[in-house]
Design goal:
Blueprint lengths: L1 E7 L6 H14 L2 E7 L10 E4 L4 H10 L3 H9 L4 E4 L1 H6 E5 L18 E6 L9 E6 L8 E6 L3 E5 L5 E6 L2 E7 L2 E4 L10 H10 L1
Parallel strand pairs: 1-2, 1-3, 3-4, 4-12, 5-6
Antiparallel strand pairs: 6-9, 7-8, 10-11, 11-12
Helix pairs in contact: 1-5
Bound molecules: glutamine (GLN).
């Protein structure tokens, strides 16, 4: 069996996800064929999709320019398993707010896919902690996962009961799952540990 896994490749860390998803395939004993998704026709026939980290505003704008938003949303809404990491979490979210400021309720104008019922704060961990690594307890995983955070967003609020919280760190939720949608605030592709990619592929089996 071969799983065709698309990686949104308009900007951000694409190669690292290729390596991680191939490792996940080996672990599960399934063949993985990766496809770089740049235009609407690349979305056809995928078994799973990864929305990588990078700069969420840039990724969203390029997706709009390439007419990718509607086809991707349609596929996800009809059940395509998807994993968003870091900027990918921001892109999947229903609500996005800028960096945490006490008392603010401002929504920023940035293109989003709006398929995950969470409110995300961009750059949630502030300037002092731009990037760091932490061993996280993750729901359903026996051993902690070494999570690499890089100017990471955080989920400050879950907007529906359909969302399962998989991990929390500090004031934020940092990994969630909602049906076919999986998202992390950190970069599982940098961990040399394919457990999140395995989780994604299992949704496609
Ligand atoms: N801070 C970035 C954003 O909100 C995400 C950073 C990342 O993906 N490493 O777009």
């Amino acid at each position: 069996m071969t799983l065709k896994v698309g990686i949104l490749a308009v900007q951000g860390d694409v190669e690292e996800h290729e390596g991680a998803v191939e490792a996940a395939g080996e672990e599960l004993g399934v063949e993985v064929d990766t496809v770089w998704v740049r235009y609407p026709e690349d979305v056809e026939g995928l078994d799973a999709l990864i929305v990588p980290g990078g700069e969420s505003t840039t990724i969203g704008r390029i997706m709009e320019r390439h007419d990718l938003v509607d086809p991707v949303v349609e596929e996800i809404e009809s059940g395509l398993p998807v994993m968003g990491t870091c900027a990918g979490l921001v892109l999947l979210a229903k609500e996005v707010v800028p960096q945490a400021h006490p008392g603010r309720e401002v929504e920023i104008e940035q293109p989003c896919l709006g398929v995950l019922d969470v409110r995300v704060v961009r750059n949630a961990f502030g300037r002092q902690r731009e990037s760091f690594e932490v061993d996280l307890e993750v729901e359903g995983m026996d051993e902690p996962f070494t999570a690499v955070f890089i100017r990471a967003p955080g989920v400050e609020k879950v907007l529906s009961d359909d969302v399962d919280v998989l991990a929390e760190f500090g004031d934020y939720i940092v990994a969630v799952e909602q049906g076919n949608v999986l998202a992390t605030a950190f970069h599982p592709e940098l961990a040399d540990d394919p457990r999140f990619h395995v989780k994604l592929l299992e949704k496609a089996l």
